[in-house]
Write a structure and sequence with these properties.
Number of helices: 13
Strand order of the largest sheet: 5-4-6-7-8
Radius of gyration: 22 Å
Strand content: 5-15%
Number of strands: 8
Order of helices and strands: EHHEEHHHHHHEHEHEHEHEH
Structural class: alpha/beta
Oligomer: single chain
Length: 290
């Protein structure tokens, strides 16, 4: 893969001017050039710059890093990880490294350290969501191997499911919430986080998962007697979203909670018949009040 200077800057936090200065002064990570003189970096160079950024944030000077062999850089980065770094940008860059190297052990270490130090919710809002948003631009511009996306997304998915499984079971009289994604939507991580938060708050969760037709919801609610639905909108799906809106208008006694992209939500006619929750904190507030 080839990465532009702006993409490298976005992923590493190292400014373009700084990269040029390092190249001139230390002969460090020289950008490649196409025939058009367009500058780019290889995936291996990106990995070194990610490690460099982590070391800089942990007290190293570029003059020192530039004189290190790659094995020495790797050793110093490993030492930082062993100290359980509390710097959020360090964790994000480490996750990028884990993804690029298909390094499950590094991912597990960073995920576990993050959850242990700041908890699941803070971990997602401060580390994992920013990481996924950072990668979003790479997918849009085809600057990432789809296999990388599947690898890292599935690891996060597995962790969330495991964390949810060990929570206490709800009481018999617990309120029930039905969670689902509409047909055509496979972006499950936000839904899984909501599942964790609801179960943690003592709610009984009926988790339907992805690709649920809106027409299937009514019989499910009749059978389960649930009075709350939760879904997330990450993509435009006018037909299914319109059916959900119609369902909400017919069933005013049911609380239909929606989260996800504000742009997508606001494009849905009459979405005000449902309750939009902009963040996980708004969802927690709803759970605690009901």
């Amino acid at each position: 893969m080839k990465y532009t200077m702006s993409q490298v800057t976005q992923l590493t936090g190292i400014q373009a001017h700084t990269l040029r200065v390092w190249e001139r002064r230390y002969d460090f990570i020289k950008a490649k050039r196409k025939e058009s003189k367009f500058r780019y970096y290889t995936e291996e160079q990106l990995k070194i710059l990610l490690k460099t950024s982590i070391l800089l944030q942990n007290g190293f000077r570029i003059s020192t890093i530039a004189n290190l062999e790659l094995d020495e850089i790797n050793w110093e980065v490993e030492a930082v990880f062993n100290q359980s770094t509390e710097i959020e940008s360090d964790k994000i860059q480490a996750l990028v490294l884990a993804m690029l190297n298909f390094d499950e052990a590094l991912f597990n270490r960073i995920f576990d350290q993050t959850v242990e130090s700041i908890g699941v919710l803070e971990g997602f809002t401060k580390v994992f969501y920013p990481f996924l948003n950072l990668l979003g631009g790479m997918w849009v511009y085809n600057k990432a191997n789809p296999a990388h996306e599947h690898f890292i997304s599935n690891l996060i998915r597995q962790k969330l499911i495991a964390l949810t499984d060990i929570l206490a079971s709800p009481k018999d009289n617990a309120q029930t919430i039905v969670m689902f994604l509409l047909e055509g939507d496979d972006h499950e991580l936000a839904l899984l986080l909501a599942y964790y938060l609801a179960k943690q708050a003592g709610w009984k969760v009926i988790y339907l998962g992805i690709r649920v037709p809106a027409a299937d919801l009514e019989p499910i609610l009749i059978q389960t007697k649930a009075e709350t639905l939760f879904t997330t909108f990450t993509i435009l799906n006018p037909a299914e979203q319109a059916k959900l809106t119609e369902f909400a208008q017919r069933n005013g006694n049911i609380s239909i909670l929606i989260s996800g992209s504000k742009t997508v939500v606001e494009s849905i006619p009459d979405y005000s018949s449902m309750k939009y929750l902009p963040s996980p904190y708004d969802f927690i507030s709803f759970l605690e009040k009901n």
